[in-house]
Amino acid sequence: MNQEIIVERFLETLINGDRVAARAVIRETADAGIGAPTLINNLFFPAYEKIEQLHRADQITKVAYHLASRLLRMLVDQTAARLTAAAPNGKTVFAVCGPSESEELAAQMVVDLLEAGGCQVTFTGGGIPGDEILAQVHERRPDILLMFASAASDLPEIRAVIDQIREIGAVDRTKIVVGGGVFNRAEGLAEELHADLWAMTPLELVEVVLTGKMKREPIPATVGRIGKKTIGARQRAAA
Q1: What is the DSSP string of 157-178?
Q2: β-pairing, 120-126 with 175-179?
Q3: Which of 1, 68, 176, 220 sits at 20 to 30 Å (Cα–Cα) from 32?
Q4: What are the residue boundaries of the structural domains of the chain, listed by start?
Q5: Cα–Cα distance measured from residue 223 to residue 14, given in angstroms and rounded to the nearest whole number
Q6: Could you read off the pLDDT of 110-123 as tens digits, one per residue?
Q7: SS3 label, residue 18
Q8: Residue 238 and residue 182 in contact, taking contact as beta carbons nearer than 8 Å
């Protein structure tokens, strides 16, 4: 199956709010032997990113955006029920995301795959203040703090949380993992924020969480806080 063609077909069904046609695309992929994890990574997530891109560029109406987002959420929920859970691996993940519903949808794809991979995941959703995130990290002492973001406006809060964790040397066992559209659109952003690990797709994020290894080498992190000018430039690039 040609992934690009399937994504385009699926995207059209989502924007039109055509639930029957969207389910038909899903059945077609299942008949082709595509499993739930690959479906989430190679169909749902690319479609989600395209919807967000069109929305940011004001190339679809608000109605179309809502139709697409809500239909995709329903399909993600249904597909998550088909995931086969691996044996518990002992890794604990505390996951947060940006405040919008779309960011929660993208983060949910990652969280579902992490749980299926054997991780014990706690997911707050979006809109949690930085001080409460820090309090939870101190209390829970997770192996992974996952911060998933698609909007450039999320960066100041993410930066503040990471800075505080780094500066006070809190919870040394916890690795900071970031992902989401904003990090995909601005190369080098994760490194500048001093994240430990990052990835571009849900399955890549699962891989780095499970293995603790990157597919590519990070650039050396600069010492101290990131300058406001640098963050401003990254925000403009990611917008």
Answers
A1: HHHHHHHHHHHHT--TTPEEEE
A2: unpaired
A3: 68
A4: 3-80, 92-238
A5: 45
A6: 999 999 999 999 99
A7: coil
A8: yes
| HSE of 196, CA atoms in CB hemisphere, 13 A | 18
| Residue 127 identity | G
CA 146-157-119 angle, 5° bins? 10
Architecture of the domain defined by 92-238: 3-Layer(aba) Sandwich (3.40)
Angle ∠(120,122,124) on CA atoms, nearest 5? 165
Locate 108 and state its tokens.
Answer: 């949910």
Tell me the C-alpha distance between 194 and 221, whole Å: 6
Question: Nearest Cα to 205, choosing from 77, 112, 124?
Answer: 112
52-91: b (≥16 Cβ within 10 Å) or e? bebbeeeebeeebbebbbebbbebbeebbeebeeeeeeeb
From its phi and psi, is residue 120 left (phi > 0), alpha (psi between -120 and 50) or beta?
beta
Q: Which CATH superfamily is domain 3-80 in?
A: Methionine synthase domain (1.10.1240.10)
